Amino acid sequence: MFVTPKAKGMFPEDHPLFYGVCSGLAADAVIVDFFAKSDLLIGAGFDPVESDKIWHQTMKLVSIAPVTIAAGHYRPPLELTGDVTSSLTKLAERSYGPFGWTRQDETAFREELELTLRGHSHPAHPAHPAHGLSALEVTRCLRDLFPPETIVTTDVGSIKSIVSQAWRSTQPLTFLESNGLSAMGYSLPAAMAAKLAMPDRPVLCTMGDGGFSMVFADLETCVRRRIPFVTVVYNDSALSLIRVAQERRGHADYGVRYGPVDFAAASAALGAWSRKANTLEELAAAVKDARGLDVPAVIEVPIDPSEYRAHAAPSRFAR
Asked: Are 227 and 198 a contacting pair, CB within 8 Å?
């Protein structure tokens, strides 16, 4: 079972049959290549608008959705339109199979996914973050520090790619993100809205330095209106997703790096509680302190972007 980004939490990601988040996130190439080995894909409520690739057109996919996913010249081999819950309930009454993957297939996929998320595609070429923390490890650390009912928002860029893949959502409607790469700066106002709508729920906002730079003045509104939640800024002093895209196209690294910005100090100047965390232990301590406050809190974490190159590697099967 895979989910798309907008469906995170609909299927508990601690379930043994959960494999990952598809449609354009970190290590998507590994997932698409795994799809290509299947005889049939079944999309339940799948909307191709969520995918940045066209594997749904080049692979055999059966669609079960409220409306048709046919568009232009594309027609799915088979589709069932109507109420998705009723359709799945009826289909579940029938017997199928056995069509399971072998244990060897499952293990090989999970190992390759983990390897790629850690920033390398072969054990002989590991990535060792040298100028900051691993974005993967920071995300997993945050997951362990917050309860399951936490509402998480994430932003556009490399931050979305890794947080959406690595954050383990176990409850519906607890993970908020914009579709595709639509709007940098989304995560902060989304967190504000989530906290206003559900004040008794913990809220975590994850942002890259680029997106946070665009909207952090809204912290003053959070301070003035007493909207308390925790924001963690993944700071690598660059627009890393664009930098990786430039590299893949053979272009020079141009216009995507900038000098050091003290986001913790800037946040404090707006009245927020803030800290810098240079280790996972410091991050854990800062989160513990921040969660006990009744004011907005910002934790800045230096990130080594070396993992991002492997996260965005192209698939052999999707264009």
From this structure: no
**How many helices (H) and strands (E) would you count in the chain?**
13, 11
180 secondary structure, DSSP code:
T
CATH superfamily, region 2-117: TPP-binding domain (3.40.50.1220)
Delimiting residues of CATH 3.40.50.1220 domain(s) in the chain: 2-117
Question: Which residues lie below 8 Å from residue 312, measured CB to CB, with a gap of 6+?
Answer: 26, 161, 241, 244, 245, 248
Please tell me the chain's helix, strand, coil percentages from 3-state DSSP, rounded to the nearest 5.
40, 15, 45
pTM: 0.92
Question: Each residue of 235-291: pLDDT tens digit?
Answer: 998 888 888 888 888 898 888 888 899 999 999 999 999 999 999 999 999 999 999
Cα 8 from Cα 174, distance rounded (Å)? 8
Q: How far is Cα of residue 206 from the mean position of the Cα atoms in its chain?
A: 10
| CATH 3.40.50.970 in the chain, residue ranges | 135-311
DSSP strands (E only) in the chain: 2-3, 20-21, 41-44, 61-65, 78-81, 151-154, 175-176, 203-208, 230-235, 273-276, 297-302
Q: What is the pLDDT of residues 203-236, one digit of tens each?
A: 999 999 999 999 999 999 999 999 999 999 999 9
313, two tokens: 């590697």
Closest CA to 79 of 91, 62, 66: 62
Q: How far is CA 255 from CA 258, 303, 306, in A?
A: 8, 19, 18
DSSP at 257: B
DSSP state of 101: P
- CB crowding 212-236: b at 16 or more within 10 Å, else e: bbebbebbeebbeeebbbbbbbbbb
pLDDT digits (tens, 9 = 90+) for 284-312: 999 999 999 999 999 999 999 988 888 88
Topology of the domain covering 135-311: Rossmann fold (3.40.50)
DSSP track, 267-281: HHHTT-EEEE--SHH
